[in-house]
Amino acid sequence: MFPLSFANDRRSFASLSEQEVLALAISSEEDDGRIYLGYANAIRDAYPSSARVFEEMAEEENEHRRRLIDLHKARFGERIPLIRRDDVRGFYRRKPDWLRRSLPLDKVRLEAEAMERQAHRFYLAAASRAGDADVRKLLGDLALAEAGHESLARRLGAEHVTEEAREDEDAGARRQFILTYVQPGLAGLMDGSVSTLAPIFAAAFATHDTWQTFLVGLAASLGAGVSMGFTEVASDDGVISGRGSPLKRGLAAGIMTALGGLGHALPYLIPSFWTATSIAVAVVFVELCLITWIQHRWMETPWPRAMFQVALGGAIVFAIGMLIGNA
User: Fold this and answer.
1) Residue 325: pLDDT band by 50, 70, 90 thresholds?
2) Of the residues 93, 147, 268, 311, which has the maximum number of CB atoms within 10 A of its CB?
């Protein structure tokens, strides 16, 4: 479980001053320009024409940065506050260079589209809050420019991505479903299933009392569900990231966290200790298989990596519970 204070380490977008919004826009344009150049370098050998498109997009980002800096100098002076996307809630963390290098063109296209959708939403939100006419005008112009980038990135797919791939990776509805429900729900299920293993099985083997074990499992599961739900709600309002309603995401994370823990707590309603424990272990195995399947099906994680991650984490936490319970 992530502590609730994790969400407070980042500023909310609404708390930024007009100068800070401009500074954030400047640093974001710098980062995106570098990312587009990274895309261009990664695909240049196979798709030189598409690489040139990304180079042009990087040049446009640099032009946006220059215009933003000129406006900042005119309004606020030479000193630009240091504020980046990682400092503000609601912004996705961009993939590092070593992960982007191996992406196929269709994945690059989707990444670029997602980047520009977020930038477009950012500039619209920023423009709506700007009080200075020049600032409002520039931010509105940049919102239109970023929307044009998204259509430009999409046209790359029309040339190089097969019809089957376009159908598989289509549409905003599936992407939105993943962002709003699957990602927070999967995080919750993993947290609830894995993090509650230690306290439940520690209580079970320490007491051999099924009712006390059930109460420990119930408290751990519901507490984890509330914590994860509030953490998800507080981490991102969805305005910039486009991840959807924070309430929906919080419910998905909280409910799945609680269910993940209750799955192997409920068997301890059975009075027989060894029967309850055997069923609980079987339930844990089913939960871990479900997490692995969701990772592969919705998050496109390769089967070996998904199985290794889930099995390793589950085994470590289960061992911790067993060792403490038998101490």
Assistant:
1) low
2) 268
Distance CA 150, CA 146 (A): 6
Task: Choose one of 107, 139, 168: the last residue of a domain.
Answer: 168
Q: Are 109 and 156 in contact (CB under 8 A)?
A: yes
Q: Using alpha carbons, select from 113, 321, 291 the residue that is nearest to residue 202.
A: 321
Report the share of the chain in percent with pLDDT over 90: 24
- 261 plus 157 within the same structural domain: no
Q: Which residue has the tokens 């993940």?
A: 260
Residue range of the domain that includes 319: 172-325
Mean pLDDT, the chain, integer: 81
Q: What is the pTM of this model?
A: 0.53
Q: How far is CA 297 from CA 41, 160, 164, 178, in A?
A: 30, 24, 17, 11
Give me 21's structure tokens.
């919004």
Residues sharing a CB contact under 8 Å with residue 178, sequence separation 6 or more, in sequence order: 298, 299
Same domain, 126 and 239: no
| Spatial distance between the Cα atoms of 222 and 15, rounded to a whole number of angstroms | 32
- Is the per-residue pLDDT at 243 higher than 90? no
Amino acid at 219: A
Q: Are residues 31 and 112 in the same domain?
A: yes
Q: Who's near 202: CB < 8 A, 6+ residues apart?
A: 320, 321, 322, 324, 325
Q: How many domains does the chain have?
A: 2
- Residue 47: strand, helix, or coil: coil
The verdict on 235 and 163 lying in the same domain is no
Which whole-number Å values give the CA distances from 179 to 131, 141, 224, in the listed order? 32, 28, 21
**Length reported for the chain:** 327
The string of pLDDT tens digits covering residues 188-219 is 888 888 888 888 888 888 899 999 999 999 99
User: 240 vs 13, 15, 26, 233, CA distance in Å?
Assistant: 9, 14, 16, 14
